Amino acid sequence: MSFTEGVMDTKSETVISLRGVRAELGARPVLRGIDLTVRHGEVVALLGANGSGKSTAVRGIIGQVPLSAGRIELFGTDRRHFRDWGRLGYVPQRTTAAGGVPATVTEVVSAGRLSRARFGVLRKADRQAVRRALDLVGMADRARDSVDALSGGQHQRVLIARALAAEPELLIMDEPMAGVDLASQEVLAETLREQVAQGTTVLLVLHELGPLEPLIDRAVVLRDGCVTHDGPPPRALGQHALPGHDHVHPHAPAGAEPIRTGLLS
Ligand SMILES: Nc1ncnc2c1ncn2[C@@H]1O[C@H](COP(=O)(O)OP(=O)(O)OP(=O)(O)O)[C@@H](O)[C@H]1O
C-alpha cells in the first residue's frame, strides 16, 4: 500500500458507527432507530430539543446505556468488546468535577491520564500531559486549588482538561459550553481547534453552535429519538437562528403561526 493510500484510509476510517440503535429508559423508548457515522478527523454536532435523546445517544456510545436493538462500533470494534478506552475522552453533561471527594484540580485532571499511564503510575510524560491540558483550558494557575473552590464554568474547564489529558483520538462532549461565559467559550473553541488540527475526532452535544460554529463539519439533529437531519450545520449563530426553531416575527399580527423550518422542533 502506498503512503497516500494509507493517509486516505485513516481519513475515511469510521470512528463511531451507530446502526438501528434503540434504547429504553424505564418504559420510555428514548432512541428509536438511530444511524450515525463519525469518521476520523470529523467534528460532528448533535443537536435537538430538550429530551430528544442526545445525552442518551452519547451515553449509549460510551457504554453507559444498554441498547435494546442495533449495533454500536468504536474504532471498528463492537462496543461490547471495546476495551481501548484510553483512545476516547468524555466530558459528561452538567456534573461537577468534585464528586464529593476533596481533590485538587491537578488530581482530577490526572485521573483523566490514568488510562494512558502504564500500571496506573503517572510518570514525567504523564504529568507533562496533565499540565498541558490545564494550560489548554487556561486553568494552570488554579492547579493546586480544591475543585470545591471553583465556579461552574471553571468546573467545566477542568472536566474538559481531564478528557484532554489522555490525549484522546476521539473526544465526546455533552454540552461542553453549558454555563461557560463567552470569553471562556472562545478559549475552549481555540483549544478544540488545536485538537482538531492535530487530527482529533469530535462528537459534541450542543444547544448553540456559538464560537464552535466554524469547527463543525456536520450537524445531526435528533427529534423524539430519531435522526431528522444529517448534513451541513445550520449557518446562523445561536439557537434562535437554527432551522427548526419556532419563530414569530416581532411585527407579525397577534395570533400568527410560528414559522417552522423543521429541524429542531
Ligand atoms: N434515567 C432515566 N429514566 C427515564 N427516562 C429518562 C432517564 N434519563 C432520561 N430520560 C428521558 O429520556 C429522554 C431523552 O433524554 P436525554 O437526556 O437523552 O435528552 P437530551 O436530548 O440530552 O435533552 P437535554 O437537551 O435536555 O439535555 C427524555 O424524555 C428524558 O426524560
Automatic annotation (TrEMBL):
Keywords: ATP-binding, Nucleotide-binding, Transport. It holds the Pfam family ABC_tran. PROSITE patterns: ABC_TRANSPORTER_2 (PS50893). GO terms for molecular function: ATP binding. Residues 244-265 are annotated as: Disordered. It comes from Streptomyces phaeoluteigriseus. This is Metal ABC transporter ATP-binding protein. InterPro entries: AAA+_ATPase, ABC_transporter-like_ATP-bd, Metal_Ion_Import_ABC, P-loop_NTPase. Residues 16-249 form the ABC transporter domain.
